[in-house]
Amino acid sequence: MAKTVSVSTFRFLPFTLLLLPGLFRLSAAIYTPIREYSGNEFFSEWDYYGDIDNTTWGNVDYVDQSTGASQRLTYIDPNTNHAIIRVDNTTNITAAATVNRNSVKITTKDAYPIGSLVIIDTWHIPYGCSVWPSFWMLGTNLLWPNSGEIDIIEAINNLDSNQYALHTTSGCFLGTNSIQSGSILQTNCSTGAGCVVQEKKPNSFGSGFAQAGGGVFATQLDVSGIYMWFWPRGSLPASISQANSSSPMNLADWGTPTAAYLSNACNITEYFQPQQLIIDITLCGVWAGVPSIYNSTGCSGQCIDNVIGTGNPIYNNAYWDIAYIRTYLATATTTVTTGNTSVSPASLTSASPASASTSSSSGANDANANAATAASTLVHSLSWSSWLCALVLLGILRFC
Asked: What would the pLDDT profile of 115-162 be if each residue is shown by its tens digit?
């Protein structure tokens, strides 16, 4: 059972103001840090799936934690302190009726509600013929897709562009009037593919992503919509490049998102429940392995031929290299419910989730003080004309 991140008080700033078409987009949210998944404790707050791939019917067996560690499918790189998650590339797999190779699927113990922000800094995303990696969010409590799904990083084979998508029950759409930089591929979120936006910035997937030093993806889950960004390594906003695990996050310098799923076309509170984070790598399956798709995404022959054999060299690039994943809530005081213990964001003083083991009233006070300081900074940094525009818009939005 997932542990839900709870909002214990009030939202003190509007999350995101989306201005009318033709005007600018003002991000006015300050987010308080909740948890950082990184370093030696990266895997301590995740559950391993430990079963066959029964979601995409890919040709993998997802291992448990002990197998992942013993086969070095999940480990911490001692040189970079990054988390490595990979497909087995040493075992000799023979042709058989069922051909599966060991891989990894992990899910966070926490579930994040509307009002959350997720940032992942990754230096390498799995790629290669038959390879299908995903970093995504899945709603808890109800059968898929009744609690919603958010695909943040997902592509296949030798594609060079990432794709973003939502999956929901009927009635949720990607509006064509969204202010975003990505290309709309599908608008109906209840279809098999979901409502899909393709990244237009270069090097968002594949070998180009790795050669460019990776980059950062972010997802904002808000009542006004779901927004997703990508920045290559050399183009990170200062709010991200200068942040650490305890820094509040200000979205003011983030610019236009790649994908913007506005609530006027999809009621976010209706279609999305608290979301767990998931990282996985499958092989072939109902997207990467479809013959017509496989042969149109830089590959030739049969997808299953990659799975058979030793996996070397085809799966030498089938791995994640993750510096950190950080989660936030746009609140003055927030807690993570972990068993019977409530943890304030201010008590997360290091990159290790293990440090979040006790509750402290002084920590809550510090969180309030940090949030108030960040809010004050934002207020004083905006010009009077920006605030006038915001106030006018708030007046307009009130009657929408």
From this structure: 999 999 999 999 999 999 999 999 988 999 999 999 999 999 999 999
* Domain range summary for the chain, segments of one domain joined by +: 3-398
In this structure, the strands spanning 183-184 and 163-167 are unpaired
**Strand-strand pairing, 3-7 and 110-111:** parallel
Pairing, β 319-329 against β 30-37: antiparallel
Q: What is the dihedral of CA 240, 242, 247, 249, to 10 degrees?
A: -30
Q: pTM of the prediction? A: 0.80
Mean of pLDDT values over 90-111? 93
CA pair distance 45, 107, nearest whole angstrom: 9
Identify whether the C-beta of residue 118 lies closer than 8 Å to the C-beta of residue 277. yes
Least confident of 111-125, 234-248, 337-351: 337-351
| Residue found by looking up tokens 């839900």 in the block | 4
Please identify which of the residues 36, 41, 45, 149 carries the catalytic annotation. 149
Alpha carbon 175 to chain centroid distance?
A: 21
- Structure token pair of residue 297: 């995404």
Choose the catalytic residue: 36, 41, 45, 154. 154
In CATH, which of 2.60.120.200, 3.30.70.1400, 3.30.230.40, 3.40.50.720 is domain 3-398? 2.60.120.200
Q: pLDDT band for position 353 (50/70/90)? A: very low
φ and ψ of 356, to 5 deg = -90, 65
The maximal CA–CA distance of the chain, rounded, in angstroms, is: 69
Tell me whether strands 101-103 and 60-62 are parallel, antiparallel or unpaired.
parallel
Given a contact cutoff of 8 angstroms between Cβ atoms, the answer to whether 280 and 56 are in contact is no
**β-strands 149-154, 183-184: how paired?**
unpaired
What is the rounded CA–CA span in Å between residue 116 and residue 111?
10
Residue 270 annotated in active site:
no
- Using DSSP's 3-state secondary structure scheme, residue 213 falls into coil
Q: Residue 276 has which token pair? A: 């767990």
CA atoms within 13 A on the CB side of 395: 6
Block residue for tokens 């279809």: 191
Q: Which of 51-55, 206-210, 328-332 has the highest average model confidence (pLDDT)?
A: 206-210
From 6-15, 118-127, 249-258, the region with the lowest mean pLDDT: 6-15
- pLDDT value at residue 141: 82
Sign of torsion over alpha carbons 38, 40, 41, 42? positive
Please report which helix (H) or strand (E) contains residue 198, including its range: strand 195-198
